[in-house]
Each structure stands twice: as structure tokens, then as C-alpha cells.
Write a sequence for this structure.
């Protein structure tokens, strides 16, 4: 089989861990598999490089930041190739530039456009393990680009697509994707499967296991990803197309997530005019404020209320934008609540099952948890609750959908 | 003026030093100069990377070692560009690959063949300072190559040649090239000038200030190098073609050097056959043993003695090679002396002055220092003395040629 494996920063955190990973790769190699291995920077290397940069320039040019950060993956890549050669597995490393991992020209957040597989195929034909620096590419002017934090996942999926790999494994420090955060809900269970859409919704709701673009790319080309631990040989979680989830594995809710460090802003008594929401959230977007849930309601006398949530760090900026907007349209008063959290239930099964929202609301009511806002998508229900009740809410929803233990 | 400046590892040892260098570059930039700046890896970065490699593989593939080590210069380069941008000097960094610094395909010790100056010229035309990663290049297959330790000097000279720079400055942690090592002889004086040939002879005799290939390259293209300190604004030492040294600066001996950690091996009573030396030193060369001084003498009864010096670290291997050789030709006995050092006097003035050797030998005799071996080139006289007398010998020779103080 042709397998792409990606090892994250924790998995290659020091030379001992690199040796462990080399031995794992060797066990695959000896079973006759062809291997392409994508590596991230070792442990805290990226943070240390950023600290050095900040000591010299608090607003460094993005191009130079990319030049700096790609060295982290290059160090891992060369060391991994050496570790493999030391255990008699022929290995060769490649930078993004050497593989012509072609991206657009957006420094620090580039998107992969194309990968030239010539050198990989040559090396594989010579029975070599290919080690590839994750997170990096080049544009058509040979400028060095990075793919954004977590971008090595995307490198792995892009290589799997380009070379038509049979498998794509993303190694990390947890056993797979869990029904919810096991640090918060001990009953959380590792999923055997999850589909792309569910993974994306969970990630956007705060359960970050895979880089979002890697899931989008996998979804586009139907690449199955296995998320698993580099510290044991347990089966991980398969991220698959929806239609590949067998009926018996189909559940209405796949997982629940908790997003903390959020704030809610409400504007009351604002004049009811067409295009109000478009105007406000256009300005928020222009200020790069990441608005999450939005609820609009019409009160009496044609006065409106708009409430929305933002990350706590964006609160003061969001408030300024809102104040300016209200001054412009004439009227409205602002209320802010920083004691909130968002609990979400995600599952493609919701599309064909009714009553999911009702089950969730009943579970919360039973625990006397007040729901302050509700928003839904086709495969997600999110509620805003008081921060102090968020852990209890997460547990209640997790239990209500039978996600705990061996259920 | 178009100036190439190279800053060594000590000069960019930490972020504070990088800031200092950035301010120095800024002062040149503000005087209207066009600048190309070559940087080495920060301080001990290269050694730390080598330690990591050794922890994984005691004999790492040279290709992967090159992949690893080039990251050191890449980090310096990006940080320097950031530091310059922070003090409002527009700067852009380039890897060896981006500049197409084309080398032969010899990993860890590649030679530069060509440099494409297109991108440098574009950036200079935009009034940007160009920061270039030293020590690295690529071959025609885009394989990453390093130029050997100290190779950043060669990068600087090669860029100066390619872009026809007006000046080439090599910044280091000393004020220039000294008549001898000031740590050993306090009377040592900084030279204002030295010619290429003298610099090469002194370097090969243990006074390592510049990478040898950088001097060879400078000599070939008549590039004048200034060696100076990055910690002050003192004039350094100019390394120039012989004909540019004015008459009044002409001296018979430019500098003296001491090479310790040497061993002498002698083979006595070996049969006198033609091709003996060629046979023996061919084998030494094949074993990559770096033989320095060689003296052959014919004794009575057609028996020969051959003595030669090698670095102490090569002694046991050299002895084995010699033993095998003597067994082959039938005869001879071996003597080894590890208590030696080599003192050399270097100067192009020797070519036209007689009596230099006599002055040197008299100076040593006066101090009761026994000369154990002598070897000469056109511009160098080297003697082997007992290790315990080496410091005294160095001082005596330095004084005898009037090199100390303000002389």
C-alpha cells in the first residue's frame, strides 16, 4: 500500500521521540508499504522562532516570517531522514520547494494549488521512504510560503491526493476524535468514524484536531483520513465521506463541543430598516472580527434586537464597530455579556431525524440550565448558556444523545 | 558604492547583536550605499544542530546533514531582514536556492560555480538591502549543498565577484588579521594589508581568519577583502593583490604562525627505491590523512629516512598506513614524536630578499631552541620545534622580523 503519514510537533518533540517514530515507520516499511511521511516542527520550535522574531520586530514582514518558520519543519525532516537511515531504512527528505508544492502568493496563509510528484515517485521506486517538510510550499516566483498553523495536515492530504495514496494517517498525541473533550467529560468516547461535514462543524465549534483545510481538501477528493496516536498502536478515528458510514454507525449526534472565552453583544431598540444586518456584519467582517452566532428578533414598535457572539479577545473592537454603526443609523443601546459559553451538538443524522433539538433542550431544562440563544445549521444545534453552567450543559447533552461509555 | 558585507556567527550571536548589526547596516544604507549582506548561523546554532543529528545517527547521510545545517543561516537571514525592517530599512532575504547560487554536487563541501544576480539587482533597484544566507547553494537538481565550515566567507566573495561589488567586508569578532596570535604573543600587531598568497599560507599554517576558498576566489578575481570587527568601527585588514601593497608596506615577513596538536612520524632505514615517497604519500592521501611537512634524507648504505608531520588526530591511522607500506617494501623502523609544534614565517617579501631563513634560524639559536625539521615554500619557512618551546619560538621569530608593537 501507498501510505501518507503525518507526525505532529508532539510526536517529533525531541530526538527520542523521533527515534520512536522512525521505528514505527520502519515496521510499516518492513511490511512492504511505500511511505510518504510529513513532519511538523519539533515541539516548541515554532514558538521559539516567533519569540526571536518578536524580540526584533513586533510586526515582522509576513514574507520574512515565512522564511523563518519553514526552518522548523526542515530541521524535523532532515533529522527524521537521519533517524531512519540509522535503523537501515533508506530515506530522503524534501522541502516544499523541492517538491514544487505550489501555492498561491498569500504569505502565512497560502493555499496549495498543485504538487509535482515526480521526485516522490522516483524515490519510492528506489524503495526510499520520502520525508516531507509540512506546512510549506512555494509560489511561482520561488517565494517560500506557509499554510497557516496546523498546515502540515493539509500538506499530508494534498500529497495523498496528488500521489493517489491508499491511506492517509494523521498522528497526534491523542487516540483519535472524541465524542467530546475527555478532559471535561470523562465519559467521552473515541469515535470509530466521523464524516467530513461533522468534523468541520466540530472543529469550527472549538474541537480542533485537524486543520480545517485538510478536511475540506479530503472531502473534495474523498481521501479517508485516520487520526491516531503516535504513542500507541490503537486504532484511531476514520474521517470519511458521509455515504461510507454504515447504517449501524449512523447516529443522530456524533459529538458535542464546548466553546468558551466568548462574549455576547446585544443591540436593543434599533430602528427596523432593510439591510441592517448586512450593514453591521459587513463592518464586522471588514474589521476581521470573527462573529459566530447571530440572532435577530423584532420587538414592538418596529424596534429590533440583534445579538451575536464574538471571541472574548475581539469584544472591545466589536463594541467600537457596533457603537459607530448605531450612531450612523441613529438609535439603539448596547448590552454586553462576558459570562457565556456555546454548547453544540453535531451530526449528519440530524438531516433525517426530527426531534434532535427537542431532546437537547429537554436535557438542558432537566438540569435547570437556561438557554440564552439558539442557532442551528443543517447538522448542528448550538446554544448559548451561562459560563458557570457550561460544563454541566456539555455533560447533559453528551448523555442525552447516548454518546458516553460503550453506548 | 555597492558593498558586500558578511557577518559571522559571533556577530549575529543573539537578538541584541542582530540589532547592533542592523544599526550598522542602517548607517551604511543612510549614506546611500547599496548593500548585500551575507549572514552565518547564530552563535552555536550549527553545533547544536550537529549534536541533534549525532544523537540520531553517528554517520548521517551528507545530503541530510546539508538539509539540516542550512536552516541555521536561514534563521539568521530572516531575523536580520526583520531587524532591518524594524529600523525602517527595507530589506529582503534570500536563500542560496532563491539566488541560484549554483554549486557542484559535492555535499558538505561544495564549490560555487555560478550566481544568478537577477533577483539581487531587482531588489537593489528597489532600494532594498539584500540579506543572503551564507554557506549554502544548490546544484542543478535543486539539491541543497553546503560549502564547508566557514563557507559564508566564500558566499560573500562569490557575490562580490558576480555583482561586481566595490567592496567586500568580512566582519568577525577580531579587529583584523594579526602578525601572529595576540593571545600567544601580546606584542602582536594588526596588519593594515596582507596579500592573498600570504593569507593562504598563514591560514594553512593554523591562523584561520578567512575560509581558504574565499581567499582563492578573491585572488582569482582581484576582489579586495576587508577583515574587520563588528563590535567597533576601527579599520580592519585589507587582503589585496600583491602588486597593490605599496613599497613602504612591503616587509620580508608579514606574519608568523604556530600550529600545535601535530605529530611527527619517521621511518628510518628504508630501502632507497625510486617512487618511494610517491607510493607512501599516495596511500596517505587515499586514507584522507592530511600530511603537512615532509623531509627525506639519504643515509649511508643506500638507506633512507622519511619524516613527516600529521595532525595529532590522524596519528594512529597514519601509523597503520606506514606500517603496511613498510611491510610491503620490506624494511624500515618507525619512530613517533607527539611533542612537536610547527612555527612558520610567511611573507611575499621573501621572494626578493635573501637571508630570511638565516635570520629565523639565528633567532631560534639565540634562545637555545632546537630545530627538528625544516621545510620552505617560496613565501614561507616552517620549522618543527619541541612543543614546550613553541611559544618562546613564536615570540622569538615574531621579534626577529620586527613585527611587534608599532614597528
Amino acid at each position: 500500500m501507498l501510505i501518507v503519514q503525518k507526525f505532529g510537533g508532539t510526536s517529533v518533540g525531541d530526538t527520542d521521540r523521533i527515534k520512536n517514530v522512525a521505528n514505527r515507520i520502519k515496521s510499516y516499511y518492513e511490511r512492504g508499504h511505500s511511505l510518504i511521511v510529513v513532519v511538523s516542527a519539533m515541539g516548541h520550535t515554532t514558538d521559539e522562532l516567533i519569540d526571536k522574531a518578536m524580540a526584533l520586530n513586533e510586526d515582522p514582514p509576513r514574507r520574512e516570517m515565512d522564511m523563518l518558520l519553514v526552518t522548523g519543519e526542515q530541521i524535523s525532516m532532515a533529522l527524521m531522514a537521519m533517524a531512519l537511515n540509522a535503523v537501515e531504512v533508506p530515506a530522503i527528505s524534501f522541502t516544499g520547494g523541492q517538491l514544487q508544492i505550489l501555492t498561491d502568493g498569500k504569505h502565512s496563509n497560502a493555499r496549495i494549488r498543485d504538487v509535482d510528484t515526480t521526485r516522490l515517485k522516483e524515490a519510492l521506486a528506489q524503495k526510499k521512504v520520502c520525508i516531507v517538510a509540512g506546512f510549506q510550499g512555494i509560489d511561482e516566483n520561488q517565494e517560500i510560503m506557509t499554510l497557516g498553523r496546523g498546515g502540515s495536515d493539509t500538506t499530508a492530504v494534498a500529497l495523498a491526493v496528488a500521489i493517489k495514496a491508499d491511506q492517509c494517517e494523521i498522528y497526534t498525541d491523542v487516540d483519535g476524535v472524541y465524542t467530546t473533550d475527555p478532559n471535561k467529560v470523562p465519559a467521552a468516547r473515541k469515535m470509530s468514524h466521523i464524516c467530513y461535514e461533522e468534523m468541520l462543524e466540530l472543529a469550527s465549534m472549538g474541537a480542533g484536531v485537524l486543520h480545517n483545510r485538510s478536511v475540506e481538501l479530503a472531502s473534495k477528493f474523498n481521501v479517508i483520513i485516520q487520526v491516531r496516536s503516535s504513542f500507541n498502536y490503537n486504532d484511531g478515528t476514520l474521517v470519511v465521506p458521509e455515504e461510507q458510514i454504515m447504517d449501524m454507525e449512523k447516529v443522530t449526534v456524533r459529538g458535542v463541543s464546548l466553546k468558551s472565552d466568548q462574549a455576547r453583544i446585544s443591540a436593543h431598540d434599533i430602528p427596523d430598516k432593510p439591510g441592517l444586518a448586512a450593514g453591521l456584519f459587513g463592518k464586522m467582517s471588514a474589521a476581521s472580527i470573527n462573529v459566530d452566532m447571530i440572532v435577530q428578533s423584532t420587538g414592538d414598535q418596529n424596534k429590533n434586537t440583534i445579538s451575536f457572539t464574538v471571541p472574548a479577545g475581539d469584544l472591545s473592537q466589536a463594541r467600537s464597530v457596533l457603537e459607530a454603526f448605531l450612531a450612523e443609523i441613529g438609535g439603539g443601546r448596547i448590552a454586553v455579556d462576558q459570562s457565556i459559553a456555546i454548547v453544540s451538538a453535531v451530526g449528519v443524522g440530524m438531516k433525517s431525524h426530527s426531534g434532535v433539538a427537542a431532546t437537547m433542550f429537554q436535557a438542558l431544562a432537566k438540569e435547570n440550565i437556561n438557554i440564552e440563544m439558539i442557532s442551528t445549521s443543517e447538522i448542528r444545534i448550538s446554544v448559548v448558556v451561562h459560563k458557570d453552567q457550561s460544563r454541566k450543559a456539555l455533560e447533559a447533552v453528551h448523555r442525552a444523545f447516548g454518546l458516553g461509555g460503550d453506548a
About this structure: Residues 256-400 of chain A form a domain with the VC0802-like fold (CATH 3.30.2130.10). The mean pLDDT of chain A is 92. The first helix of chain A runs from residue 15 to 30.
